[in-house]
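Quiz preparation item.
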């Protein structure tokens, strides 16, 4: 290899010198460049004279974060750090994940995505637009890294619980891939965030002079399908080892795109499958507290979109694996949407809801549905804040000794109830999990640590496992295996605290073990393209990027 050349991914790149090097986030060390490097690389005089350790740089970053006045300001500061020094950024995030996760992802990323055009500093990712039809391969060729292994793509139509944010959805694609690196050690240069900008139906954005996307209403129908198909063909040709993750597509497209492509290419939908997996893991952990089996549970969902139906489908798979028939399993999952109980008599049901439609009289009151069904668990995936109000929570506590309350909608402003409400209105008996983080709650002299049902427990490990074995497909069974692996890593101490997921401080270990479970399934089912290593866990750990400077 020539002098001043390094390997990034699979390609050799010229090792920049001087100011160019300082402006390259992948290779920049900032004030940590040594005296020898400063001479060799033309950096003498371009940096303050003190050579800092990475520990000192981390200290400076944390000090600056404390000086910011809002979480949005902290988000902007961290994104700026990521733009200039990725290694330092990931060192800070991985070592302080509990504190950083709410800043780089939910709930702060929701506000940041809403204001994307207003706080925009420097582009990240690729924007594919409706105007690029016939040229997507060319546009993908502009990406500087060739060994792409994970692509997160959104069309921005259903961002968290915030609705249609159009091209602003790039903030979500970038955020998800940040978690792939922080939680599973996938190298930043192997991650590609993409926004498929087909317009937006958000009138407020269309009127905003600072909006950065196409100023048009959304493309629909055949033209949309042709655009997405062209993206798939171009991406799988240019990046044949890449896993494609669908993120925050609206129900209109999410289910059918997943169904169309999941058996053709290595693709999954995190909102449908990732959410289902982390929620199922939560149920497995909860049954260690209730002392019941999964077959003893009855699940009432508030919300029948991607997340709700995805969870229901995986729960049905889990129940049938325990001996129930498909019909018996579905009868244990009731769904309640904005128009009431999902029943066969309704003529307004979307296709994805029909599998769970009940032979039951219509109901428009969620409380009446609770009284009729007597669920052991209610799962909020509605984006309707406050839906799990005092009467609902008191009713659940009246029916169950240990009611399972999962308020999973994101961001915090969309959560069905807070942790304080869940514990107070059930007299401390709730088994609670939420989509966004909540602080510990004191009730009756006991401190409860709420579990966060964050997809970050699942999708990074699934992606890492698929990479490790060269999976040709990602299957529902892999998410089932991921859920079991995650639940198995919850300790008795976690449960004593009221936490039904492992501490986020252990997330890289969690991801490695999930990766092994996923890869083993791929090997067993003939879906792996790489040779099976003697020690799969060691192989996975050796793949994981560590955010330290190269010598």
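Solution:
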């Amino acid at each position: 290899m020539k002098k001043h050349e390094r390997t990034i991914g699979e390609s050799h790149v010229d090792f920049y010198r001087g100011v160019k090097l300082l402006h390259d986030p992948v290779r920049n060390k900032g004030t940590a460049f040594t005296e020898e490097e400063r001479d060799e690389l033309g950096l003498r005089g371009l940096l303050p004279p003190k050579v800092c350790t990475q520990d000192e740089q981390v200290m400076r970053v944390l000090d600056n974060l404390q000086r910011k006045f809002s979480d949005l300001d902290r988000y902007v500061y961290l994104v700026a750090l990521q733009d200039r020094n990725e290694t330092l950024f990931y060192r800070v995030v991985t070592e302080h994940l509990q504190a950083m996760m709410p800043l780089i992802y939910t709930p702060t990323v929701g506000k940041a995505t809403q204001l994307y055009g207003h706080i925009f500093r420097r582009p990240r990712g690729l924007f594919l637009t409706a105007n690029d039809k016939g040229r997507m391969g060319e546009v993908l060729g502009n990406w500087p890294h060739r060994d792409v292994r994970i692509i997160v793509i959104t069309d921005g139509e259903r961002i968290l619980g915030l609705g249609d944010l159009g091209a602003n959805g790039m903030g979500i694609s970038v955020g998800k891939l940040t978690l792939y690196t922080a939680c599973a050690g996938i190298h930043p240069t192997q991650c590609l965030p993409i926004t498929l900008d087909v317009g937006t139906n958000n009138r407020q954005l269309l009127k905003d002079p600072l909006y950065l996307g196409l100023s048009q209403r959304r493309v629909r129908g055949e033209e949309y399908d042709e655009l997405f198909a062209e993206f798939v063909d171009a991406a799988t040709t240019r990046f044949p080892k890449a896993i494609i993750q669908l993120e925050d597509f609206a129900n209109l497209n999410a289910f059918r795109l997943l169904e169309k492509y999941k058996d053709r290419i290595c693709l999954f939908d995190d909102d449908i499958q990732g959410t289902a997996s982390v929620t199922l893991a939560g149920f497995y952990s909860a049954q260690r507290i209730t002392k019941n089996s999964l077959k003893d549970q009855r699940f009432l969902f508030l919300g029948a979109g991607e997340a709700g139906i995805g969870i229901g489908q995986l729960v049905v798979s889990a129940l049938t694996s325990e001996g129930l028939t498909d019909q018996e399993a579905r009868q244990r999952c009731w769904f309640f949407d904005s128009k009431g109980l999902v029943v066969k008599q309704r003529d307004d049901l979307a296709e994805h809801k029909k599998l769970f439609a009940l032979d039951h009289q219509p109901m428009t009151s969620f409380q009446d549905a609770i009284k009729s069904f007597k669920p052991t668990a209610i799962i909020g995936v509605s984006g309707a804040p406050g839906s799990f109000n005092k009467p609902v929570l008191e009713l659940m506590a009246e029916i169950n000794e240990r009611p399972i309350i999962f308020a999973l909608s994101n961001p915090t402003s969309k959560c069905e109830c807070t942790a304080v409400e869940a514990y107070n209105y059930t007299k401390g008996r709730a088994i609670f999990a939420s989509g966004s983080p909540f602080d510990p709650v004191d009730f009756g002299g006991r401190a409860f640590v709420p579990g966060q049902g964050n997809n970050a427990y699942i999708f990074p490990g699934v992606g890492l496992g698929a990479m490790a074995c060269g999976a040709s497909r990602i299957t529902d069974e892999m998410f089932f295996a991921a859920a079991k692996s995650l639940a198995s890593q919850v300790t008795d101490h976690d449960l004593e605290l009221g936490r039904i997921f492992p501490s986020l401080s252990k997330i890289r270990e969690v991801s490695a073990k999930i990766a092994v479970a996923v890869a083993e399934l791929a090997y067993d089912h003939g879906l792996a393209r790489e040779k099976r290593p003697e020690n799969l866990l060691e192989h996975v750990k050796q793949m994981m990027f560590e955010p330290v400077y190269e010598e």
